[in-house]
Amino acid sequence: MDETEWQKRLLAGISGPRLWSLRKRTAMETARDFIKVGISMSRPELDEKTRDAVHAVGLLLQMAGELVFAAGRLLSDREHYAGAALLRQVVEIEYLTWTFKEKRRSASAWLRSTHAERMKMFGPSQLRQTSKGRFLDKDYRHHCEQGGHPTVRGSLLLRGANVPGAQLLLVDLIVHSWRTWDQLVCWSKEFGCASRAVVALGSQVSWRLNEWGKQDPIYTLMVERYPENRAQNSLTPQQIAYRPDPGRE
Hints:
Layout: H1 3-14, H2 17-41, H3 48-76, H4 80-101, H5 107-112, H6 115-121, H7 124-130, H8 137-148, H9 163-188, H10 192-201, H11 203-215, H12 217-225
């Protein structure tokens, strides 16, 4: 599709309150499940090496849950800039879960790492380098500039006026959460207690995300434009013309 059609369908896909509510509900219910599964995984009775790995990923999943819950609320309730800042941290957790799934780094090593070791082995730039192009610098830079660091670009999200931009970020939040969950499910198959926690407490996550994906026209548009659904294909407010909400000064 050409750029004109992309813009037209993207703007139409923002939709209205019914779909905004679905996005918020999907994000927040998924976040609650992340926390439940993460707590269960953080208390395994296993040998030391396995215990450390499962505990580490359980902690990451709890962190992701709290971030997704707060970001979903903020992006839905007109505190858009703050929500964007939390979204960037979700992206970093996605980096880590993919790295552990692919065995590029060890979860137990991350758990026991010093500050210097984390900067050398687990920093976002290092993880992007080992991802073989899956995670791009430009995508992370977009997240940093719209919410992670104080820059002029982030001003588009101030005062709760840019509802279309916030809705794009909410879709992006759900997609990053989905990728994180899929990576964790794959990783957990090698650890019985982790896999049992996923099945027992997270059985609704994949179903819920799939149902949301069937109903959200922006997600459908993303899949059409990027059929491989690679991790760098994120949405940003800059992809649509800025149109302040007429109901908000």
